[in-house]
């Protein structure tokens, strides 16, 4: 399995609203069209209203690559920059888990 954790810091409250709307538009398409995307979880951060954390888990690197090529993901990647102050990405290798099988 292949995964990543992404921390987005948004510019301001207006940007947070725009970013959240973009996510709300994108996530249903990920659910419907990406069988290799096992987990795509979007989190708000308690006490940090301008931060969002994504946890993504894919069947393998090829499933991640297929995710990145989807039109809805390309749109998200192109549109998100207007809302962001910063982005941190950590690529993860699953060592062990409960509730996830590979």
From TrEMBL:
Source species, domain of life: Bacteria
Keywords, ordered alphabetically: Monooxygenase, Oxidoreductase
GO molecular function, one term: monooxygenase activity
Annotated organism of origin: Halostreptopolyspora alba
InterPro entries noted in UniProt: ABM_dom, Dimeric_a/b-barrel
Domain ABM: 2-94
GTP-binding found in the keyword field: no
SUPFAM superfamilies found in the cross-reference section: Dimeric alpha+beta barrel
Protein name (record): Antibiotic biosynthesis monooxygenase
Gene3D superfamilies noted in UniProt: 3.30.70.100
